[in-house]
Amino acid sequence: MRAELTPVPVAARGAHGPRARRRRSVTVTVALAGVLLALAAFTLQGNLRTSRATTAQSHAMDLDMLFVEVRHAVLLEELSREQHVTNPSDAVRGRFTSEAAIVTSTLVRADDTGGDGVAGDVAGLLRRQHAYRIAADTAMADPQADPSPVRAAFDALSADADRVTSHYQSAAAGQAGNLEDAQRRMVAGTGAGFALGLCLLAVIWRLVLGYQRRLAEHADASQHLALHDALTGLPNRTLFDLELRSALDAARHTPDRLVALLIVDLNEFKSVNDTLGHPAGDELLASVAQRLRDTAREFDVVARFGGDEFAVLLPDVPSRAAAEALAKRIAFALREDFRLAAGPAAVSGSIGLAIGPARDPLAEPAADGADAEELVRHADAAMYRAKASGRAVVVFEQDPGGEAPSRLGLFGELRSLLTTGDPDEQLVLHFQPQVRIADATVTAVEALVRWQHPERGLLQPDQFLAAAETGGLEIPLTYHLLEAGVAHAARWKAAGRPLVVSINVSPRCLLDDEFVPRVLAAVQLAGLPPSLLKLELTEHTLMAEPDRAVSVLRAIRATGVQVSVDDFGSGFSSLSQLKRLPADELKIDRGFIRDLATDPDDGVLVRSAIELAHNLGLSVVSEGVEDLRALAVLRDLGSDLAQGHALSHPVPASELPAACELAEKAARSILEVPTT
Fold it and tell me: Which pLDDT belongs to residue 363?
């Protein structure tokens, strides 16, 4: 049975015919043109609105920063005035005048930047500043004058500064909101326009190539985000691991090619966060990343592992010495102050260095990625050793039999020595003389531990201290060396050559309730005057838990024992904490002294440190004198004592008298001090 064909009405055919398709094509084209024109107009309007909002926000932020600077300078101005009360000197008066000038000049800049809308606030602050300046000058000129007028003037100035700063901070935040709103409307309107345009099926073919290109760009951007740190823009650990494996693979096929890995951990980063705020911490991390890139070579890979930990891959180094030299350059670069929006910040780096790949011809081929993971572990272990010992750079050393078994063996032997009281006296102290610059006389020595191992020979501290620290032996080791050092000092005192003996103290001793009683017992048992014992603690130790450090060290100093702050200048110290720290001496870090005779910039830093110490009533020891010419510079800068290899290497107790004589002779030759 044939199916009947139903004829299509003429009207229906017209709705799907060529003429209708042309009409739809024209309609779609006109619609597309209208959408594009509307989108162009919206985009132009949005760009103008965004540009105006951006300009307004930039202006508001400039004013905000200027008034924040005014507020900071006002506080420093008052701090200088208060210091003048307790320390009336030209230097303090000069700092007050300098800060006052900064307040005035910054207000003038704010007036120039802000125009009529700011003039009233600036004029009010200038009047307050003028009144405060008159009151302050009067108070500083007459110490007996009533301090209440200057305090009232400062309170009024500070209150106005706080109010104005708060106002412009709110204004900057409001402008930021306007900018964000304009950008949001811009994005929303643009997205709607494109969405409408994409709905026009007649023009899909015109958009295919552009759409594919955008997809490729988004894919590249997504891949970049997946392999890079959002804050610093550095490669993240995933990408760094790929680069490390590639470098090790290339090195295995190239004789004499070495790969070096540096892991850098910042010291005192938490203090920056706590003191200046987390935005300043983020800014510091970005600045550290840039400084690492600037210091490393062009083809080296700098990455951020997370937090305040970075890594630097040297894919091709000629030797271990070259890698170590670059690591030291990085450590030196990190010690330079960082200028942040919230204020200056000083940090340092603990750097662990590991060299690869292993070239044992008898070894089995490593599994994929195993060499890379091992190199990271080695560099990480070296970094922790650097942090524990207070050194800037530590190179990972592996014994032929394997580092872990060797370290475990040393740990077991050291624990046995400390448990039995070291009957064979394997743990010995070497002493480095400290020369008093005023008369070229040795008045003090620093005690440094060595291990006279029966099988391995004389071991330096970095060969066994890490085992003690990670195994929890640093406290008993410190007490053992304390008793030995006090005994030597007592013998020298009895022989008519009293010398102050400095003993390095483990950071964890400050957490031990027995610390103060053990120090007192050691001095009393040996019959040593407490003033001939000095305890050295690193700057990092004292600033990590300042409240605990202040409490313990006050108890120590109450016994008459002296306290020294070691490695000063290598980390981020709060001056307010340092001011209240019960100490007798600052030891300037060797990094500032080593090139003092040839680098004028080091002289500026050392002079500042010495003046700070003397203003706080502390004596100064400059360690790391490698060039005798530095002694004359230190004398001119006002350092009290000096020590270093140019004067004497650390020597056993039996060789100390001769070493002292040679150190004094060398010092006299430079300082031109006559022989007494």
Answer: 41
Instruction: State how far the alpha carbon of 319 is from the alpha carbons of 114, 258, 282, 394, 488, in Å.
Output: 58, 7, 35, 16, 42
Quote the pLDDT of residue 212: 63
Please count the other Cβ atoms lying within 10 Å of the Cβ belonging to residue 245. Answer: 17
CA distance 130 to 137: 11
Q: Which residues pair with 309 in a beta bridge?
A: 265, 306
Q: How many C-beta neighbours within 10 Å does residue 532 have?
A: 21
Q: How many angstroms separate the Cα of 157 from the Cα of each of 73, 116, 125, 166?
A: 12, 21, 7, 14
pLDDT of residue 295: 93
Of 314, 336, 310, give the one whose Cα is nearest residue 325.
Answer: 314
pLDDT digits (tens, 9 = 90+) for 139-177: 787 777 778 887 888 888 788 788 878 887 787 787 777
Which tokens sit at 30?
A: 């006109």
Residue 609 has pLDDT above 70, yes or no: yes
pLDDT, mean over the chain: 81
**Beta bridge mates, 433:** 445
Residue 142, Cβ density class (10 Å: 0-12 exposed, 13-18 middle, ≥19 buried): exposed
Q: Cα–Cα distance between 406 and 399 in angstroms, integer?
A: 7
Rounded CA separation 493/63 (Å)? 65
Structure tokens at 516: 């103060």
User: Half-sphere exposure of 500 toward its Cβ, with a 13 Å CA cutoff?
Assistant: 22
* Tens of pLDDT, residues 514-548: 999 999 999 999 999 999 999 998 766 665 566 77
Of 297, 321, 305, 313, the residue nearest 357 (C-alpha):
313
Show the tokens assigned to 381. 């272990």
